[in-house]
Amino acid sequence: MFILFVTSCYSKVNFMMKRFLAALVLLAMVTVAKAQDAKPVWAVISVPQLKCWECKDRLEKYLEREKGGTNEGGITQYKINQAAGQIRIQYIPTRISLDYIRTAINNAGFDADTTKATPDAYKLLPPKCKRVEDGGGPKPGNPCKAGPMDRK
């Protein structure tokens, strides 16, 4: 009876040890996978139509969707410079490419570097956000860099 009890206890300890080791191996694999993730890099993308607060808001909403709630989309952060018409964007190259980011900006209706906005998305932009050659941008006596009075 005693031998049966000892064997049973040894079996339970052995099973628990195997589970512990399996969990430890899994944790090590996850840590290694995270360590292999590339470091975020910065890039500057020219967006010439980005002169107005309305255009900035529109693009920010689109980028937030692309970014994802926990940065799983690969975009970690961005800074929009309206005066220069540029976006400084930080992204993780193993998760997203710069070409994909440009395409996403194009899909929002904006030109990005040398790539043009998709025609359907461009048509949906408000007149202020259109290209200068199409009559867009700030008008004399109606600057559009400042937002409405109720904005922060």
List the helices and strands and how they pair.
Layout: H1 2-36, E1 41-46, H2 53-67, E2 75-81, E3 86-91, H3 98-107, H4 119-123
Antiparallel strand pairs: 1-3, 2-3
Q: Can you give a write-up of this model?
A:
- By secondary structure, this protein is α+β, with helices and mostly antiparallel strands.
- Helix content is 43%, strand content 12%.
- The chain is built from four helices and three strands, in the order H-E-H-E-E-H-H.
- The chain has helices spanning 2-36, 53-67, 98-107, 119-123; strands spanning 41-46, 75-81, 86-91.
- A hairpin with a 4-residue loop joins strand 2 and strand 3.
- It starts with a helix and ends in a 29-residue tail after the last helix.
Write out key terms for the chains shown.
152 residues, alpha+beta, 3 strands, 43% helix, rod-shaped
Count of separate DSSP helical elements: 4
First-residue to last-residue Cα separation: 78 Å
Instruction: State the secondary-structure class.
Output: alpha+beta
Give the % helix: 40-55%
> Low-confidence parts, pLDDT < 50 over ≥5 residues?
none
Shape: rod-shaped
Secondary-structure element string:
HEHEEHH
Number of strand elements: 3
State the assembly state of the protein chains: single chain
Strand order in the sheet with the most strands: 1-3-2
Largest sheet, described in full? 3 strands, antiparallel
Beta-strand percentage range? 5-15%
